[in-house]
């Protein structure tokens, strides 16, 4: 393992007030970005019903791998036709459609801030779209496809690209402020904590980049291709790798705290982990949902599905919400892993659920967007 760290110096000061105010838990009434908050914890403060029922569904026309965002009573999601949709959370009415690239929108998930929704597409373009009208405010072209999801920090929006770089743009006009280059694709979405953007790379390195100026804060040799986005809880980052492991790294000293591998089923982790309390929840391509102890990485329980679990779990009210490529969407008890409820669509759920206002929203690979509540 390798570790390198540079001092933060004074660059953090300009963003300190905003970053200190960011919460690891998504607010009850919104899920404004991938994983709900800048820490990527996948946890919502929303009070969820004891038992879900289908409120509405919308046929978007093409496969949905993008995970929904929810803000101000509106759901935003992209599909494989390159369409970004705005849908009323209460009724399921489509409010507007915005056409991005014909190449489509893959796993890039919307982020909503300052009256703008941001999303990347497979042409390598980041789009900034007016939430009220569905018209473009600006576009920024990278040199590779975008599967990373945007994250907004104060007046910056960060986006990873398959051009091997993490880009930082001005929210107002899309002007490039800095670019941090790695040695391979940037697939993951960065977690933002204390002025640093943390993300695993396809170059087998876990990166920390200062938000203020794009300079390297840390570089940790993870030793494996990483597509999953990290979750940061306190000074600890947790993420899965294509070497069939989940790693926990102490961000203060670069120490590998623990590594987890299932004793029998050796498959990659593509799902991004959630952290709630003392537990880590993550899906595996071994067809299991895993619950781990945050302090030690010890397995607490696993829940079997019939196909890969690439959906990233969301947590709310002591329950875990997660989709499977077997076409089923599950609600599990976070303490025991017991199945509490399931919905079967017949098409894979590789997108991740969004929780807000007592509702759960998720799309499937047949292009249907579902709302449960």
Give a nutshell description of this structure.
The chain has 373 residues and is mainly beta. Helix content is 2%, strand content 43%.
The CATH superfamily label reads YVTN repeat-like/Quinoprotein amine dehydrogenase
* Largest sheet composition: 5 strands, antiparallel
Oligomer category:
single chain
> What is the average per-residue confidence, as pLDDT, rounded to a whole number?
94
CATH topology: Methylamine Dehydrogenase, Chain H
Number of separate helices: 1
How much strand content do the residues show?
Answer: 35-45%
Helix/strand-derived category reads: mainly beta
CATH top level class name: Mainly Beta
Q: What would you report as the Rg, rounded to the nearest angstrom? A: 19 Å
Termini, distance in Å?
45 Å
Number of strands: 33
Number of domain modules: 1
Residue stretches low in confidence (pLDDT < 50, at least 5 long) are 1-22
Q: What is the general shape?
A: globular
How much helicity do the residues have? under 10%
């Amino acid at each position: 393992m390798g570790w390198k760290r540079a001092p933060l110096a004074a660059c953090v000061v300009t963003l300190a007030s905003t970053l200190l105010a960011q919460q690891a838990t998504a607010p009850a009434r919104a899920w404004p970005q991938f994983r709900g908050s800048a820490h990527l914890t996948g946890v919502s403060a929303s009070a969820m019903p004891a038992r879900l029922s289908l409120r509405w569904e919308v046929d978007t026309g093409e496969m949905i791998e993008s995970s929904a965002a929810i803000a101000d009573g509106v759901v935003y999601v992209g599909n494989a036709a390159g369409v970004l949709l705005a849908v009323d959370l209460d009724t399921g009415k489509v409010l507007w459609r915005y056409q991005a690239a014909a190449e489509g929108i893959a796993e890039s998930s919307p982020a909503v801030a300052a009256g703008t929704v941001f999303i990347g597409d497979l042409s390598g373009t980041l789009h900034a779209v007016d939430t009220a009208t569905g018209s473009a405010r600006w576009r920024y072209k990278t040199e590779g496809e975008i599967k990373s999801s945007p994250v907004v920090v104060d007046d910056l929006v960060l986006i990873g690209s398959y051009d091997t770089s993490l880009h930082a743009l001005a929210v107002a006009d899309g002007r490039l402020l800095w670019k941090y280059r790695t040695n391979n694709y940037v697939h993951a979405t960065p977690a933002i904590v204390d002025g640093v953007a943390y993300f695993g790379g396809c170059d087998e390195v876990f990166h920390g980049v200062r938000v203020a100026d794009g300079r390297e804060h840390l570089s940790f040799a993870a030793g494996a291709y990483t597509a999953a986005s990290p979750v940061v809880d306190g000074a600890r980052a947790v993420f899965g790798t294509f070497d069939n492991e989940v790693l926990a790294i102490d961000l203060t000293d670069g120490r590998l705290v623990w590594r987890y591998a299932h004793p029998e089923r050796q498959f990659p982790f593509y799902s991004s982990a959630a952290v709630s309390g003392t537990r880590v929840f993550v899906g595996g391509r071994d067809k299991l949902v895993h619950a781990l102890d945050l302090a030690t990485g010890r397995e607490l329980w696993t829940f079997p599905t019939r196909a890969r679990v690439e959906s990233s779990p969301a947590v709310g009210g002591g329950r875990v919400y997660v989709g499977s490529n077997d076409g089923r969407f599950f609600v599990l008890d976070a303490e025991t892993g017991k199945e509490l409820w399931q919905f079967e669509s017949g098409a894979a759920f590789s997108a991740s659920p969004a929780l807000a206002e007592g509702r759960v929203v998720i799309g499937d690979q047949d292009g249907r967007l579902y709302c449960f509540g």
